[in-house]
Amino acid sequence: MQIPINLIKLEGDLVIPEKCKSIVIFAHGSGSSRQSPRNIFVAEVLQKAGLGTLLFDLLTAKEDEIYANRFAITLLAERLKSATLWLKSQKEVKNLSAIGGSAFGGKIGYFGASTGAAAALIAAAELNKVIGAVVSRGGRPDLALGYLAKVLAPTLLIVGGNDYDVIKLNEMAFNGLKAIKELSIVPGATHLFEEQGALEQVAELAKNWFLKYLNN
C-alpha cells in the first residue's frame, strides 16, 4: 500500500488481525526499511497476539540515497506523525472500536529501532494523547532529549547487555522521561540482537508492553 504524505507516497505494509483492538506503527533505523527482517519478526509476534502492525518506509528510495536524510530525525518524526494521522483516517482503522478509546486518547503504539526510536519519541511527544505506548529496540532516545519530558505514553527501552555505549545513552534518556517507563536489558545481546534467542526476548517484551498499555 502507499501512504500519501504531502507530494510523495511512502510504501507500507498494514496487517490487521481478526478482533484487533490496536495498531503498532514501526519506525525503522538508519539505512533500514519496512523490509527489516528484525522488525518483520517482531511484527509477526505482535500480529499473533492480536495487535495490528504498520511497517512503512520513512523515506522514498530517492531520498534514502542521500545519507544525511537517514539521520534527519525531525524529518523522520514528521513522516511518522503524518503516517499516524493517515492511518487513523483509514476505514479499516475507524472500525476498530478501541482506537481512540484509552486513557491516553488512542490505541496506536510506536515501535522504534535505532534512530527510529528518536523519531517515535518526538512524534509521541507532539501527538500527545494519540499515542498509547512506545517501545524502543536498541534505540537512540538520546537524540530526542528535548522532547522526552513531554512524552505521555508508557515507554519501554530495550537494550542489549553488551551494547555498552547505547546502554549509557538509554540510561540518560530514561532519566529524562516523565511518563511510565522501564529500561530492559537483554543479557549478552549486542546492538542488533543477533545472538540466539535475543530477538525473541525483544519481541516478547514488546508484545507484553503493548498488550498491557494498548489493550487494557
What's the layout of helices and strands?
Blueprint: E1 2-5, E2 8-15, E3 23-27, H1 37-48, E4 52-56, H2 61-64, H3 73-89, H4 91-94, E5 108-113, H5 115-127, E6 131-137, E7 155-160, H6 164-176, E8 181-186, H7 198-214
Helix pairs in contact: 1-7, 3-5
Write up what this structure looks like.
- With 216 residues, this protein is an alpha/beta fold.
- It has a single domain, classed as 3-Layer(aba) Sandwich (Rossmann fold).
- An 8-stranded mixed β-sheet has the order 1-2-4-3-5-6-7-8, with helices on both faces.
- A hairpin with a 2-residue loop joins strand 1 and strand 2.
- Helix 1 crosses helix 7 and helix 3 crosses helix 5.
- It is globular.
Give average pLDDT, whole number. 90
CATH topology, which one? Rossmann fold
Q: Specify the biggest β-sheet.
A: 8 strands, mixed
Which radius of gyration do the C-alpha atoms yield? 16 Å
CATH homology group: Alpha/Beta hydrolase fold, catalytic domain
Shape: globular
Spans of at least 5 consecutive residues whose pLDDT stays below 50 are: 98-106
Q: Structural class of the secondary elements?
A: alpha/beta
